[in-house]
Amino acid sequence: MKILSGLTLLTLGMTSLSACTGGGLNNQSSQASSISISYIASATGDSNLTISQLSQPVVSGGAVKFTVSGVVGYTSGSTVGGTCPAGTWSGTDYTTGNITSNCTVSFSSVPTPPDIGSDMTFSGVSNSGLTVNWGTASDVIDATNQLKYKVVKASSTSSVDTVDKFDAITTSGAGLVQDWTTNSTSVTLNGLSAGDFHYYVVGIKNARGGIAMYYPLGRVTGKILYLSTSWIPGNFGALSNADNFCSSHKNLVTDTTATIKAMITDGATRVACATPYCGGGASENVDWPLAANVTYYTSEGLVLGTTSAAGIFTSDFSNPVTPGYIVFTLLGLKTDWTSYSPAELCSSYTSADQSGSYLGNATQTGIASFLFYSVSNCENLTTGVLQQKLVCVEQ
């Protein structure tokens, strides 16, 4: 008896089967069931792909691995056609599902996307507009002046979190800010309203049609209060050092063209109020970072509140500066917006050996708790128990 399947040719002599000890049909059945039938898995791909072993034998129930690589500027798409059971990718290796008959797999190339440039940033933010900036992209084939850029805006990240969703936005009504344009590294939006918050996405396309995109970055039109991205010791020195700390430890959505000041008092050179709640008005402000009658927002675009004519918040916040339980901030303020004396404030923030690190809590919406929540020693960060951040204000 001859059994032919795939590449395997098996010959069983009927005489020898019947002559086996303990022979008969039971023994013949046992031998037949031990035969491994083999099949062929064949692969095809377009001219931009190289595939290892276009045709591979496989035993019934087994799987086959194909290594698929692209020429410069191309790679294999994740979708695989053909009749073989669906498999999985691991890098450039594709392994089929368990095969039970001759089958085929078909691979198609897709263009590799460009490499994005430096981070997206925002500049020139006002109550009615802003500028979105990004770095020049690069590509393995195309020159930089051949690459095209597109910018869209959306109310949520979920509507622009894939290339397909991004590419489908083609009209200004749907969120198109700038259609595909060469030699572009910024776009300015005007005519927005104060407090408008949008997520902005920049995409880059090469001549082959490959698209890369930045992760959506959100920004509100208006001034924000944000926390420094790192902790600061109580003995940082002059207030200019605090301002510089805010500028060098800012988040991605901070206006790159705005002057940044720390919302902190030393009791002398930077003061909110000389009397409780600035009874004498804005004339009591000394180098104070909050402006009068301005609505401030969080980095996420949520309303904090609007300052009074004296440049202080007299009502509780609508939202916290940051969510959570406790995030200590170094403010030096009393709950009535007056300051502790320089001697009480770590000797004007020059000493690490005394009590005087008066801390607020940025997670609080109540103004009193936001301004003053605890007090600690003016210790260095390496030994401090109550680490603190700065509240930073766009000017």
Quick take:
It contains six helices and 28 strands. With 395 residues, it is mainly beta. The protein has four domains: 1-35, no CATH class; 42-111; 121-220, Immunoglobulin-like, CATH 2.60.40.10; 223-394, Roll (Mannose-Binding Protein A, Chain A).
What does this structure look like?
This protein is mainly β and 395 residues long. The chain folds into 4 domains: 1-35, no CATH class; 42-111; 121-220, Immunoglobulin-like (Sandwich), CATH 2.60.40.10; 223-394, Roll (Mannose-Binding Protein A, Chain A), CATH 3.10.100.10. Helices cover 10% and strands 31% of the residues. The chain contains 6 helices and 28 strands. The protein has helices at residues 14-19, 25-33, 163-167, 239-248, 346-349, 367-371, and strands at residues 2-5, 8-11, 38-45, 49-51, 55-59, 65-70, 74-76, 81-82, 88-90, 93-95, 103-107, 109-111, 121-123, 130-133, 148-154, 176-182, 186-189, 197-205, 211-213, 217-220, 223-227, 260-262, 295-297, 303-306, 328-330, 355-361, 374-377, 391-394. Strands 15, 16, 18, 19 and 20 form a 5-stranded antiparallel sheet that branches. A 5-stranded mixed sheet has the order 22-28-21-23-24. The protein has a 4-stranded mixed sheet with strand order 5-3-11-8, with no helix packed on it. A hairpin with a 5-residue loop joins strand 23 and strand 24 (303-306). Mean pLDDT is 89; it is low at 1-34.
